[in-house]
Structure formats: structure tokens, C-alpha cells
């Protein structure tokens, strides 16, 4: 038996008046996901434990079959692992975004989705000026970077707000606060004049693109303890494809092989077809493959309902169709699901249960008729805790 997991990041959401009272999942044309829902076991899974931050970190940890509380790793540390950063016991890794703040308002948590080469050039300049025995910057992909702080474990207790949670809102009341916050605020202040004088920023402004006005640290994580590898816990070899450091970092920590597929990104420019084709090819020497697609979440954060619908449809058309075709030639079980909702109205994540479907040999249909939040709820099946979804696939 082979297994395929398709994660439609952030694809779930809330009904929208502009979509006739439908969610983006309901509004999207998804014949292949709907076929899985009719043929398989459809339900809801609570991937984010009650009371926990509704982050992709907790949600995707659940989908991979790990308990996001018992196996907790701070997101900064997960993303650091993806970048090959080995944290020492006295170090904290924080995610650091390049952002645009205009007149005190968070106008872009991603600096207009700045290109990787531009963002890295800016971060490299800041690192040259500000790296010392306490701070060290590591350039990442697009707007996502890592700041490692040595000797200040109190930063684990600092209060942070992810910048995508405050789109189009004043930032003053959302800056880091509490233990250790002053040193981070000072780092942010010292970065601003460097950003103001950045040649890259001048070029962006000249071409009409938003400038990086600030760096924004959040999501701290300490050196992770050793997690049981996926192979040890499940007895299966696994591979994963994703365009974001979070999933790649989880793969590193769980001993899952990372697939380096050209054209796989975290946005709408993702090469869906290539990701599916090369992801499925990994089943020649792996038992299970995870195909994680970030684009619905990005469009949810942007508040663009039409673009989110298009992203969901692209996953169905280019990824799920190929997975179903592959399943006709081999004994394959399929799990497809979002990790969490990213409602257009909020432009950020929520923690409600999300629809999932498991289909394939040995899985009996349970009356689902479409892949949506409403149809999944109608089956009466709820997996709580959500990490039981991997058991549903492998049972």
C-alpha cells in the first residue's frame, strides 16, 4: 500500500456574501476532491487543540500524526531546522518578517510579497551591521527569515503578534511586550535607518513596489527535543514537498525526506503540476508522500476571495487529479485536507475543525457528497484530537 497526503493550506473558511453565502471551498469547482468525498470517508478534524494558537505549526504537526502539545516545538525553531540552523541550549530562534508599516498601520505583512533575492539582500545588509554576539540573522525565502538570539531564553515568555494577524491595523499595541521585549524593540529600531538607506528599497520605491519599512520578530522557539521519527513511529518511509520552511522544518524534525522540486513556491506562482508529478514519483522508493500547497492560505491572508478560489481549483485540477489518476494504477490511499481555516473576512487563521477525506482500498464511503465544511459536518464524523487523522489514513 502507498499513501498520499495533500494539504491545501488554509483552504477552509467562512461563508461570504460575495460568494452567495458559500465558503471558498464550496464556491470552487473541485470535481476531484468531490469524487474523493463521495468514494471515501469524509469528516471534520480539529487540528488545532482548544485554546492553542491556530497556527500552521500546530495544524500541520497534527496532520503528520504528531500531538502538537506533547510534541510541541516553537515555530521559529521548526523553520530554523529547515534552514539547517542547529540551535544551542541558550539560543532562541524567531521568525522575522520584512514588513511594510505606513503611518503606524501594517499595510503589508509580506512587503507586497517581496522577491526572495530582494529580501535576502536587505536582510544581509542588516546582518552585516547588526549581527553580534547576541543577534544573528539568517536570510530565508521571500519575506520569511530567522533571527537567532543567544543568551536570552526569556524571549520565550515575550508576547508577540504575527504580522498577518494585524493586516490594515495599527501596530502600536501589537509590538513585542513583556520579558525581553525591549531588546527586540531596540533591534527593530536600529534596523529602520538601514532600511531607509537600502539600495534595494530605493529601487522598489522607484518601480512602485512597497518598501521594507520594518523587520518584525515573532514565533519564538528553543532548541527542539528529539521527536520520534515518522519511520520509527509508523514503520513507513515518507517524503514531503512544500514551498515553505515550516513544513520542510517539520520534515527535518520528523525524519521525513524533503523533496527539492523546482518551481514549488509558497504562492500563486507554484508549479502545481510539477509538484504533483514529482511528488508522486517519490513513491517509487517511499511508502508515503506529503504534498503541501501554500497558495490558498496566502490568498486568504490577502483577503482575496477570487484568488483563493482559483488556488483551490488549481490544486484540484493539477494535483488531486494526478493523485487520483496514479491511484488507478496502484494500491493507494489518499488523505486530502486543509490544515486550518483562513477566513477572507479576518485575513488570518482560526481554529475550527476542518474537512478531511480519506479514500482508497479498505475505506468505506460514509455518505459524503462534496468536499466542503458543510458536507463534512453533515457526516457527523469529528476527529478530536486531529492528529488521529493519520491513523484514519493508515488503519
Instruction: Provide the number of structural domains.
Output: 2
CATH fold title of the largest domain: Alkaline Phosphatase, subunit A
Order of helices and strands: EHHEHHEEHEEHHEHEHEHEHHEEHEH
CATH architectural arrangement of the largest domain: 3-Layer(aba) Sandwich
Structural Rg: 21 Å
- Helix tally equals 14
- Provide the residue-averaged pLDDT: 97
**What class do helices, strands and sheet pairing give?**
alpha/beta
Q: What is the CATH class designation of the largest domain?
A: Alpha Beta
How much strand content do the residues show?
Answer: 15-25%
List keywords for this structure.
34% helix, 395 residues, 13 strands, alpha/beta, Alkaline Phosphatase, subunit A, 14 helices, five-stranded antiparallel beta sheet
Can you tell me about this structure?
The protein is α/β, with parallel strands linked by helices and 395 residues long. It folds into two domains: 2-67 and 229-394, 3-Layer(aba) Sandwich (Alkaline Phosphatase, subunit A); 81-222, no CATH class. 34% of the residues lie in helices and 19% in strands. The protein contains 14 helices and 13 strands. It has helices at 24-27, 31-39, 56-63, 75-82, 116-130, 181-196, 199-206, 230-234, 245-254, 272-281, 295-302, 305-327, 373-378, 389-394; strands spanning 2-8, 41-45, 91-102, 105-108, 135-141, 144-150, 214-222, 238-241, 257-258, 288-293, 332-337, 354-359, 382-383. Strands 9-8-10-1-11-12-2-13 form an eight-stranded mixed β-sheet, sandwiched between helices. Strands 3, 4, 5, 6 and 7 form a five-stranded antiparallel β-sheet that branches. A hairpin with a 2-residue loop joins strand 5 (135-141) and strand 6 (144-150). Helix 4 crosses helix 9 (245-254) and helix 11 packs antiparallel against helix 12 (305-327). The longest helix has 23 residues, at 305-327. The protein is globular, with a radius of gyration of 21 Å. The relative contact order is 0.24.
Amino acid at each position: 500500500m502507498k499513501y498520499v497526503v495533500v494539504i491545501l493550506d488554509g483552504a477552509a473558511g467562512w461563508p461570504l456574501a460575495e460568494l452567495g453565502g458559500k465558503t471558498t471551498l464550496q464556491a470552487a469547482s473541485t470535481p476531484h476532491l468531490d469524487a474523493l468525498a463521495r468514494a471515501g470517508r469524509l469528516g471534520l478534524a480539529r487540528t488545532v487543540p482548544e485554546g492553542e494558537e491556530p497556527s500552521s505549526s500546530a495544524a500541520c504537526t497534527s496532520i503528520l500524526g504528531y500531538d502538537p502539545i506533547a510534541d510541541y516545538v516553537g515555530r521559529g525553531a521548526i523553520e530554523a531546522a529547515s534552514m539547517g540552523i542547529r540551535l544551542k541550549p541558550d539560543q532562541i530562534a524567531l521568525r522575522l518578517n520584512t514588513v511594510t508599516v505606513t503611518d503606524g498601520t501594517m499595510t503589508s505583512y509580506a512587503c507586497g510579497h517581496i522577491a526572495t533575492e530582494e529580501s535576502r539582500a536587505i536582510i544581509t545588509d542588516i546582518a552585516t551591521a547588526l549581527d553580534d554576539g547576541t543577534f544573528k540573522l539568517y536570510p530565508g525565502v521571500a519575506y520569511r527569515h530567522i533571527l537567532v538570539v543567544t543568551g536570552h531564553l526569556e524571549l520565550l515568555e515575550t508576547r508577540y503578534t504575527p504580522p498577518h494577524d494585524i493586516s490594515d491595523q495599527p501596530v502600536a499595541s501589537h509590538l513585542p511586550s513583556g520579558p525581553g521585549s525591549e531588546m527586540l524593540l531596540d533591534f527593530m529600531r536600529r534596523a529602520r535607518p538601514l532600511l531607509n538607506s537600502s539600495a534595494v528599497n530605493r529601487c522598489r520605491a522607484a518601480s512602485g513596489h512597497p518598501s521594507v519599512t520594518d523587520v518584525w520578530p515573532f514565533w519564538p522557539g528553543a532548541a527542539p527535543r528529539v521527536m520520534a521519527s515518522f519511520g520509527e513511529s509508523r514503520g513507513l518511509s515518507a517524503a514531503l514537498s512544500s514551498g515553505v520552511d515550516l513544513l520542510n522544518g517539520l520534515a527535518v524534525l520528523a525524519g521525513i525526506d524533503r523533496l527539492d522540486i523546482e518551481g514549488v513556491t509558497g504562492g500563486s506562482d507554484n508549479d502545481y503540476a510539477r509538484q504533483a508529478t514529482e511528488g508522486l514519483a517519490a513513491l517509487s522508493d517511499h511508502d508515503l508522500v506529503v504534498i503541501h500547497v501554500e497558495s490558498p492560505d496566502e490568498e486568504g491572508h490577502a483577503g482575496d476571495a477570487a484568488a483563493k478560489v482559483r488556488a483551490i481549483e488549481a490544486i484540484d485540477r493539477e494535483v488531486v487529479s494526478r493523485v487520483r489518476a496514479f491511484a488507478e494504477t496502484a494500491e493507494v490511499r489518499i488523505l486530502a485536507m486543509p490544515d486550518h481555516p483562513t477566513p477572507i473576512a479576518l485575513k488570518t487563521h482560526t481554529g475550527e475543525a476542518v474537512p478531511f477525506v480519506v479514500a482508497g482500498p479498505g475505506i468505506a464511503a460514509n455518505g459524503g457528497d462534496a468536499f466542503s465544511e458543510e458536507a463534512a459536518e453533515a457526516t457527523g464524523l469529528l476527529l478530536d484530537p486531529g492528529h488521529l487523522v493519520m491513523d484514519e489514513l493508515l488503519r
